Each structure stands twice: as structure tokens, then as C-alpha cells.
Amino acid sequence: MSRVMELAGGALDAERIRKDFPILSREIHGKPLVYLDSAATSQKPRQVIQSVVDYYEQHNANIHRSVHTLAEEATQAYEDARAKAAAFVGAPEPSTIVFNRGTTESINLVAHGWGRRFLKEGDEILLSELEHHSNIIPWQLAARDTGAALRYIPVTDEGRLDLTELDQLLTERTKLLAVSGMSNVLGTIPPIRRLADAAHAVGARLLVDAAQLVPHAPTDVAALDCDFLAFSGHKMLGPTASGGLYARRELLEQMEPFMGGGEMIREVYADHATWNEIPWKFEAGTMNIAQEVGLGAAIDYLTDLGMDQVQRHEQALTAYAIERLMEAGARIVGPTNIEDRGAEVAFTYRDIHPHDLSQVLDQEGVAIRAGHHCTQLLHRRFGIPATARASFYVYNTREDVDELVAALQKAAAVFGL
Q1: How would you class 308 by CB atoms within 10 Å of its CB: exposed for 0-12, middle for 13-18, buried for 19 or more?
Q2: Strand partners, 35
Q3: Which of 1-15, 37-51, 86-100 is predicted least confidently?
Q4: Which of 3, 394, 399, 417 is deepest in the core (most CB within 10 A)?
Q5: Residue 397 exposure: Cα atoms within 13 Å on the Cβ side
Q6: Cβ of 125: how many Cβ atoms within 10 Å?
Q7: How many helices (H) and strands (E) does the chain have?
Q8: Which of 200, 289, 305, 291 has its CA nearest to residue 239?
Q9: Distance between CA 95 and CA 325 in Å, rounded?
Q10: Is 246 helix (H, G, I), strand (E, B) or coil?
């Protein structure tokens, strides 16, 4: 039995799942939509869309303020979503989940509330060459403001973290290790627990950028032993501007608020204020209530599917895609062993620039992403300015992969290759 067929056993019924996603019935340029850009944002099932509509039609009110019925219903729906998010990532209690617009805001929250308070000159922040700009720029700014220095774990030619000199990179000067849980380009899944143990051994904290990990693989913050974990709802079937941060309670207690305003305070005086309890200490003003309620519905949907099944489906589909792309003459950038990678496949195709390739594919109804994918350090590491990226999710099928390959062949004909 081939590895592709072995992985496909017991997989999700993607054809049935597709019926839950209205946008997948669209045509693009007269062709059925083949959506292969879920790493940028996932599509939304009817159940999520309807949950947002129901919130606005039946329960819309501000939360944690008024005592009338609508306000109490809205507050309950919002806090129910927080409890679902906590359970989904294995957080010990809902109060360790701070809601915000997603991974980028979460990392900025940590960089501001923890980094600027506890980092000082001579300290070091350890990142990796895999990182999305959202897990680089906030630390560059924090380093600039505190005098801390940035260091980077290199990436091997196969697209994995090179940990051969981890002991030299991770020292008593390291105060934070911030690393992707799954590369948004290569799909690489670093050994997070190993990194957590190494970081804690020298007294450092570990932050996981889980924007890609949480939607695609079972995630348990206790098993990972991470101190911070950031995730985005819109990449896991939820609405845009949903998601949040998990952090250990003691760290949230120590951190400064990122934003000031209503609801995040306990007492306000003329010259100072005291903060609300966590997590509300970090949720200033009117929050993205409907979006987080929609995230709760997305978590219900993924929970019903089973994250083990989601991961198994994607592994089978990714293995098939890598096999077909290589047969078609594409060069895969990153690991080809699907056991330690996710459903993002970066590639180059012959001599066609990824942007040109993406435009031709769009004419065939195939949506991929082209560019540096907010990972310029990683692309410089491989000596290429851009890649094409096909990324898969629960609603994708082998037929989608076949359509991708057929569109590549048409692109080759367009460019006379």
C-alpha cells in the first residue's frame, strides 16, 4: 500500500464537508472555484456564518456592562466562546485566554505587556528563520526599546530548524524563545516540547506562534509546556478579527495592559488606575463580540470533525499534492516527509515567476498565494524572492490537487515551456 493510500484510510468525507461552505459553489472566470489559500484565511461554513447572523439578529448588546436580558445573553455567548477556545487548546482555565484580533495582536500584546516590562539591555530574544513577520517585527521593536538583542535559529536545506547548536544559541542571557508552531510557508512543525524544555532549562519563556498549528493539528498547551500561545480564528473556519492569546496565569498577572480604556479597569482616580481581573485586564473597549461568538461556532465544527481526523486528512492530501507536483516538474521548497509538516506546500514551477503563475491559475479558477508570504528572512535563506503556495484544509480533495496540476500544465503552455 502506498503512503498516500495508507494515510487516506479513515479520512474525513471532504465532499460532504464542502456542502457546508457556500463560497465553494462559486465560479471564477467561468470555472469552479478551487480554493487553495487557506493558510492566508480559511473559508467559513454555514454554521459559523449563521452564528454571527443569529448573534446580531437575536442577542446584539455590549458585554460585561448592562444587566438587561440582551446584555446578559451577549456576555454569556462571548464567555462561552472563551471556554470553548480554552478547551480546544488545552488551557487550564478560560481566564488564561485573552480575546483579540488574532495572532498578530497577541504577539504584540506579549511584546508590549511582558517584553517591555521584563527585558533589559544584555538580554537576548531567540527567534528562528522560519518566522512570519508577525513574530519578528514586534520583537525588533521590543529589542530596540529595551536594549535586548535578537538571535536566530537557522533553517536546514530541508526546511527544518537546525538545532545542532541550540546550546550555544539558547543561554542564560536568553529571556524568550519565540517560534512558529507550524511554518506558514513550508509547513514545517518544529519540535516544540523539546524547545520548551531547553528554554525552561535556562530560565527563558517560550512563545508559540500557533496561527497555523491550532487550525490543523491537535494542540495542548500543557503537553507543549509553552508559556504563551497565539492563534487566529480566521484561519480555523472562524470570522476575521477573532482569536487570541493563551498565557500562563502568573504571566498575565505580571504583564502590563496593552491598551487602556473601558472595562479593563477596576478603579480610576485622577492620577492612576487599578486593573480588572484577567483576562478582562487586556480587553479594553468594546470587543469583537460577534466574531468571537463565531469562533466558538468554528471550534464546535472542528471539534465535531475531530482534530486527529483533520490532521490525517490533510497529511494524506499533502502527500498526494507533493507527489503530483513533483511529477509535474515543480520544485518543493521545504520538507517532503509529511510526518512533521502541515498542509502548506511552497513550490516553484519551471521558470515562471510565482506572481505570473498565480495569475494564470486564477484564470482557471484555482486560488493560490504567490510572494514571500510575510517570510522574507526564510526566502532569503533559500535564495529565492518568492514562491507559489498551495494550502489545504478540511474542504479540499484530491480532485482539487488534480485541478492545480492541470492548471500548472496550462501555465507552462502559456509561457511556451
Answers
A1: exposed
A2: 367
A3: 1-15
A4: 394
A5: 13
A6: 26
A7: 17, 17
A8: 291
A9: 45
A10: strand
Residues 6+ apart with CB under 8 A from 157: none
DSSP H helices, 99-212, are 103-110, 116-118, 137-146, 166-169, 192-201
DSSP line for 384-399? -S-EEEEE--TT--HH
Active site residue 374: yes
For 27, residues 6+ apart whose C-beta sits below 8 A from its C-beta are 33, 365
Q: What are the backbone angles phi and psi of residue 251, rounded to the nearest 5°?
A: -75, -40
Gap between the Cα atoms of 243 and 204, Å rounded: 25
Specify the amino acid at residue 88: F
The per-residue pLDDT for range 130-164, each reduced to its tens digit, is: 999 999 999 999 999 999 999 999 999 999 999 99
d(CA 16, CA 14): 5
Specify whether the CB–CB gap between 190 and 342 falls below 8 A.
no
Amino acid of residue 108: N
Mean pLDDT within 94-121 = 98
Identify whether the C-beta of residue 345 lies closer than 8 Å to the C-beta of residue 335.
Answer: no
Choosing from 265, 305, 374, 406, which is the catalytic residue? 374
pLDDT at 224: 98
CB 346, CB 368: distance < 8 Å: no
* CA 395/CA 372 separation, integer angstroms: 25
How far, in Å, CA of 229 to CA of 235, rounded?
Answer: 15
| pLDDT digit string, tens, across residues 213-243 | 999 999 999 999 999 999 999 999 999 999 9
The crossing angle, in degrees rounded to 10, of helices 46-54 and 289-305 is 150
Look at the alpha carbons of 373, 356, 26, 4 in this order and tell me if their dihedral is positive or negative. negative
Distance CA 416, CA 375 (A): 31
Q: Are strands 344-349 and 366-367 parallel, antiparallel or unpaired?
A: unpaired
For residue 46, give the nearest of 76, 18, 84, 13 by alpha carbon: 18
Q: In 3D, which of 283, 265, 282 has the Cα closest to residue 274?
A: 265
- C-alpha cell, 252: 498575565
Q: Is 222 helix (H, G, I), strand (E, B) or coil?
A: helix
Read off the C-alpha cell for 329: 516538474
What confidence category does residue 340 fall into, taking pLDDT thresholds of 50, 70 and 90? confident
